[in-house]
From TrEMBL:
<keyword id="KW-0808">Transferase</keyword>
<feature type="domain" description="Protein kinase">
    <location>
        <begin position="89"/>
        <end position="386"/>
    </location>
</feature>
<feature type="compositionally biased region" description="Low complexity">
    <location>
        <begin position="14"/>
        <end position="25"/>
    </location>
</feature>
<keyword id="KW-0547">Nucleotide-binding</keyword>
<dbReference type="Pfam" id="PF00069">
    <property type="entry name" value="Pkinase"/>
</dbReference>
<dbReference type="InterPro" id="IPR008266">
    <property type="entry name" value="Tyr_kinase_AS"/>
</dbReference>
<protein>
    <recommendedName>
        <fullName>Protein kinase domain-containing protein</fullName>
    </recommendedName>
</protein>
<dbReference type="GO" id="GO:0005524">
    <property type="term" value="F:ATP binding"/>
</dbReference>
<dbReference type="InterPro" id="IPR000719">
    <property type="entry name" value="Prot_kinase_dom"/>
</dbReference>
<dbReference type="GO" id="GO:0005634">
    <property type="term" value="C:nucleus"/>
</dbReference>
<keyword id="KW-0418">Kinase</keyword>
<dbReference type="GO" id="GO:0004674">
    <property type="term" value="F:protein serine/threonine kinase activity"/>
</dbReference>
<keyword id="KW-0723">Serine/threonine-protein kinase</keyword>
<feature type="region of interest" description="Disordered">
    <location>
        <begin position="1"/>
        <end position="25"/>
    </location>
</feature>
<keyword id="KW-0067">ATP-binding</keyword>
<dbReference type="InterPro" id="IPR011009">
    <property type="entry name" value="Kinase-like_dom_sf"/>
</dbReference>
Length: 398
């Protein structure tokens, strides 16, 4: 049964239909390539408004981030020698704190038409925003062996996933570095976290939840097609842009190892390869409400399965407004009732917030304590609730 017309996405990876298997011993993850980081510099320069608004002078501004390891082309000062267009970024305000620094809003700039001498006549706004993760090198060095989240690996993974061209993965634009900071320049999302929208509404109607759930599945499809496990899927890590949802925060991502026909560990998702489980990773992977029971119990795990478990929790929160349990462990009575005893529908009925029967069936089959019995991505996409045509398209991401 095809899911393509329902999701409006390219064909699913053949591995989306493979269930969890313990036939082969767990293996270590495959590393990402080293991140591509260029030399950067913060300067003070003149900024003008966009050409559409008359290019009026805004003023002399600080905190303009530029790349400084390439020279402008002699024939066209708006481009580097390698033929790529020159962009700069005016770091405007801090949006939030982060473990290694902060996230900032910045204006994208391009070189204004040079003066008669061919000198940079300043920068003009393009009309686009970007988000910049400003990371302190000192914190990277001091926390590198204490935290699972790795900012360098996050840049590597985001750059790797950006090659997919998917609108459902946060896009890496460029990474720049000076002696004190590492700047990861990312595409900007104008709608905030999907969690904020659920919190504002209390809970979503099923047609609206179905819309956003399909958006989440589109991102999961990209991850599985490229053989990547996110490990921190949550409503907080889904950013809304217009009416799309993008997966962000790749700092815990892993590349899943595969076994080829010759018994070799390979990194690519290819026909004939067998997906391997991953060695246990400790309890610090992800947010407590979204962690699968095998992560909580510090057991080996299947990367696809734990991400889909988190998607089940996300759907539960969207249709009820509350998480299904505090932690996926037998000591939690709600986990015991819903995921072990498989009485999720009874639990929701007791709470007086039961969604439709097909929704409860999907939730129950995603939130099963035994990972070998959970639905695969293909099965989730083909479930009657997901395929239902009653979808409420949000306006302006709400």
């Amino acid at each position: 049964m095809s899911t393509f017309s329902t999701l409006g996405t390219p064909p699913l990876s053949p591995h989306s239909s493979h269930p969890y298997s313990s036939l082969h011993p767990p293996a270590s993850s495959i590393g990402f390539s080293q991140p591509s980081i260029s030399s950067g510099l913060r300067i003070r320069h003149t900024i003008y408004d966009t050409p559409q608004r008359g290019s009026t002078l805004i003023g002399l501004k600080d905190n303009i981030l530029v790349r400084n390891d390439l020279q402008p082309s002699p024939s066209n000062p708006r481009y580097y020698e390698d033929g790529t267009e020159i962009f700069a970024y005016w770091i405007y305000k801090k949006l939030k704190k982060a473990i290694y620094g902060g996230v900032y809003l910045a204006y994208e700039l391009r070189v204004k038409v040079p003066n008669e001498k061919g000198e940079n006549g300043g920068y003009e706004l393009t009309g686009n925003y970007v988000a910049i993760k400003k990371i302190e090198w000192g914190k990277v060095r001091s926390l590198s062996n204490r935290l699972i989240e790795d900012p360098l690996k996050e840049i590597s993974c985001t750059q790797f996933l950006t090659t997919s061209g998917s609108p459902h993965i946060l896009k890496a634009l460029v990474a720049l570095s000076d002696e004190k900071y590492l700047y990861s320049v990312l595409s900007y999302c104008n709608g905030g976290e999907l969690f904020d929208h659920v919190e504002k509404s209390g809970r979503f109607s099923e047609p609206l939840a179905r819309y956003w759930f399909k958006e989440i599945l589109k991102g999961i499809q990209v991850l599985q097609t490229l053989g990547v496990c996110h490990r921190d899927m949550s409503l907080e890590n889904m950013m809304v842009h217009n009416s799309s949802a993008l997966i962000i925060d790749m700092g815990m991502c892993l590349r899943i190892p595969y076994l080829d026909s010759g018994g070799n560990i390979v990194s690519g998702v290819s026909s004939g390869a067998v997906r391997r489980c991953l060695l246990k990773a400790g309890r610090g992977c992800g947010k407590p409400n979204y962690m699968s029971p095998e992560i909580v119990a510090e057991k080996p795990f299947d990367g696809f399965s734990i991400d889909l478990w988190a998607c089940g929790v996300m759907l539960f929160i969207m249709v009820t407004g509350v998480p299904p349990f505090d932690r996926a462990q037998p000591q939690d009575p709600r986990f015991q009732m819903s995921a072990i005893n498989r009485q999720l529908s009874q639990m929701l009925t007791n709470w007086n917030m039961a969604p439709s029967d097909t929704c409860m069936d999907l939730l129950q089959r995603m939130l099963v304590a035994n990972p070998a019995e959970r639905l695969t991505l293909e099965e989730v996409c083909n479930h009657p609730w997901t395929r239902d045509s009653n979808v409420s398209v949000p306006r302006h991401g709400t």
